[in-house]
User: Which sequence fits this backbone?
């Protein structure tokens, strides 16, 4: 058995930032376990730019952003174990892993950071009727096959869902010479960032069909066509609105789900809205010494936010390893009118030495409204917002002194 102060499960942007922060905060033995053959996670296949504007004040591609963190990690004595699959984590913070080089391993840490990222929803989660031909895949799978493996996956493409990966793949497929016929979105708004709608769809004249979805699939060996229908306010297809699109490829960009197999098996309490572990102000779960950050905690829009949040998890994991985390009754955070979810789900005031940033998402598109932060039903802060959408994560800061003797904290949206 090998003992560590802090161990990060996952070597993507979250794990890299968390490990660095733990090391900088005095953790002596830090380790990263990564199941892929190299560090960087999903960033290695994201060859488009737009990364690092907040973290490095530079417009970087995904591999460039990852490389900056990888070089920082390699400049330290942080242990890196790639091609290593974690099979189980116990509440005693024992980790059982498997790798070709080291075989079956039993590792132990004082603090563990879950940074495994998220996965895409597949066709099976949507129950789309029709045949099961080749040519139907998630947008992330298509991105990897084109950008890393070098395969051209199709010539006539329809995309279901307007998540950021789908929008980016609409542009990528166009640049590779394919014809993107349409992007269909079942909601009355896009679930991606506004900048991606403009840069990936509008700039290439790719139509975005809101309140539309795929209602049938045609083809035996290879996809031949899809049927797209308009939906009503209850998401039921409207009879007579069907339109057939002749295509050989259907990409699915219908949401991301936190990677929760390990947390679920460990008995970590999950949030029904984020679908990831519930965390407190230190990004610690309800299992003492187990932390979660990045897309495993809740799905982010920008990798810069992932790195920022993960640094906090790494800092507090090192504090926990040194026995400096204070436990006390936590203040629960509550989603008020118009708010989908809030992270962290609870806050302990004694660990807040400086302003605490709280992340949240709204349920629908809002224009010209106010975000209200309340403690014990008393308004603490108001923020006027010109525009908010579910696809763009929001944040608000709260001072430590505002949390003194607090019993509850809530965020809501009010008309401006």
Assistant:
């Amino acid at each position: 058995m090998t003992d560590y102060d802090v161990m990060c499960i996952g070597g993507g942007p979250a794990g890299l930032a968390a490990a660095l922060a733990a090391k900088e905060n005095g953790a002596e033995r830090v380790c990263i376990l990564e199941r892929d053959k190299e560090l960087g996670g999903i960033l290695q296949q994201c060859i488009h730019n737009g990364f690092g504007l907040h973290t490095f004040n530079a417009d970087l591609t995904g591999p460039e952003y990852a490389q900056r963190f990888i070089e920082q990690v390699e400049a330290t004595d942080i242990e890196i174990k790639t091609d290593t699959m974690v099979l189980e984590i116990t509440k005693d913070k024992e980790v059982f892993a498997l790798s070709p080089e080291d075989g079956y391993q039993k590792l132990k840490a004082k603090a563990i950071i879950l940074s495994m990222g998220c996965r895409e929803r597949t066709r099976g989660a949507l129950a789309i009727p029709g045949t099961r031909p080749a040519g139907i895949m998630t947008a992330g799978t298509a991105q990897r096959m084109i950008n890393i493996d070098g395969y051209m996956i199709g010539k006539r493409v329809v995309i279901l869902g307007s998540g950021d990966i789908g929008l980016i793949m609409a542009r990528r497929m166009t640049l590779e010479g394919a014809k993107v016929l349409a992007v269909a979105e079942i909601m009355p708004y896009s679930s991606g960032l506004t900048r991606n709608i403009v840069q990936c769809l509008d700039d290439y004249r790719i139509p975005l069909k809101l309140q539309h979805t795929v209602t049938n699939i045609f083809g035996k060996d290879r996809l031949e066509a899809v049927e797209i229908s308009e939906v009503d306010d209850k998401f039921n297809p409207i009879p007579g609105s069907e339109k057939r699109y002749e295509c050989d490829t259907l990409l699915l960009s219908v949401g991301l789900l936190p990677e929760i197999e390990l947390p679920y098996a460990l008995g970590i309490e999950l949030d029904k809205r984020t679908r990831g572990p519930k965390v407190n102000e230190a990004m610690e779960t309800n299992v003492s010494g187990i932390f979660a950050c990045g897309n495993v905690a809740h799905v982010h829009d920008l990798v810069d936010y992932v790195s920022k949040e993960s640094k906090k998890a790494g800092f507090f994991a090192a504090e926990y390893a040194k026995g400096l985390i204070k436990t006390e009754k936590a203040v629960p955070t509550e989603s008020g009118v118009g708010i989908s979810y809030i992270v962290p789900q609870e806050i302990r005031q004694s660990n807040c030495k400086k302003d605490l940033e709280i992340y949240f998402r709204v349920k629908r598109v809002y224009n010209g409204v106010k975000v209200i932060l309340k403690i014990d039903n008393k308004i603490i802060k108001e923020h006027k917002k010109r525009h908010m959408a579910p696809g763009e994560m929001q944040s608000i800061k709260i001072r430590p002194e505002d949390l003194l003797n607090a019993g509850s904290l809530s965020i809501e949206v009010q008309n401006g």
Observations:
- The two ends are 59 Å apart (CA to CA).
- The helical segments are 13-24, 62-74, 139-147, 164-175, 194-201, 261-266, 303-321.
